[in-house]
Write a structure and sequence with these properties.
The chain has about 260 residues and is an alpha/beta fold. The protein is about 40% helix and about 15% strand. It contains eight helices and seven strands, in the order βααβαβααβαβααββ. The protein has a seven-stranded mixed beta sheet. β6 and β7 form a beta hairpin. The longest helix is centred in the middle third of the chain and has 18 residues. The chain is globular.
């Protein structure tokens, strides 16, 4: 059996923001999938992650897709559009077109696509009804594009009502915490036919105090608004955390350069 080469592209969701480790680095669901895949299959998994926080969907495609395919993956996961949905005006059909473009290139290169929808934070955010309606429509459009493709691995998180609960989210209310990332990883592994550790579906609640309105606005909402007004991104100047393939060995929980 050929060794799995798994590459993730996307934004903060795929980078792992919200699942911070003690050393300040981020882990996230894609790292967990690589680990769970190796453990579940009993074979090493080669893994790279090119996702960078703050990216709109077409820059993800333009800057990450060909670099990912150059690594000759067997599987490529893709998610995007969350940052687009937070902009004042966004043509959802153009966002959906990006998913079609990624799938076309995967088909051309013989790569299995893992399609994810992001989790739904709308109930916690300003303009929650607008974000909810945009997310519902984007999810509908993307699923419709791949309705006749049983070969596309689908891990749909937007409809997961449990994952929308505040206990799965970090204090910025926009990124999942470690508990949320584990639940997403369990869903991806299940879609791949790999058994995830049962506890990943619902890890114990984290002791994260919910910020009051003033603190939340000062520490999270205000900086986000300033970035929008200045045309900057939280990902400016950042490099991908795993731009080259690393090997995740079964049972080790560790990775080494491939």
């Amino acid at each position: 059996m050929a060794r799995v080469r798994y590459v993730a592209i996307g934004d903060s969701f795929s980078e792992g923001v919200g699942d911070e480790l003690p050393d300040g680095s981020v882990r996230g669901w894609a790292d967990l999938v690589a680990r769970g895949w190796a453990d579940g299959s009993g074979a090493p998994v080669e893994y790279a992650n090119l996702a960078i926080r703050g990216k709109l969907i077409w820059p993800i495609v333009q800057e990450q897709l060909e670099q990912a395919l150059a690594l000759r993956p067997t599987h490529l996961s893709f998610n995007g559009g969350g940052n687009d949905m937070l902009r004042p005006r966004v043509p959802l059909s153009r966002v959906t077109d990006a998913f079609s473009t990624v799938l076309e290139r995967c088909d051309e290169e013989g790569v299995t696509m893992i399609l994810l929808s992001g989790a739904n934070p709308s109930s916690q955010l300003p303009l929650s009804r607008l974000i909810q309606s945009r997310g519902d429509e984007l999810s509908r459009q993307v699923v419709a594009r791949v309705a006749d493709r049983p070969d596309v691995i689908k891990a749909l998180n937007w409809p997961d009502r449990e994952l929308s609960h505040p206990g799965y989210w970090s204090q910025d209310r926009l990124h999942m915490n470690s508990r949320g990332h584990h639940r997403v990883a369990a869903r991806v592994l299940s879609a791949l036919g790999v058994e995830a550790p049962g506890e990943w579906w619902s890890m114990p609640p984290l002791d994260l105090p919910r910020l009051g309105a003033g603190t939340y606005a000062r520490e999270h909402l205000g900086p986000w608004v300033r970035r929008r007004l200045t045309g900057t991104s939280s990902g400016d100047g950042r490099a991908a955390k795993h731009p080259s393939l690393i090997t995740v060995a079964p049972g080790s929980g560790e990775a080494a350069a491939a």
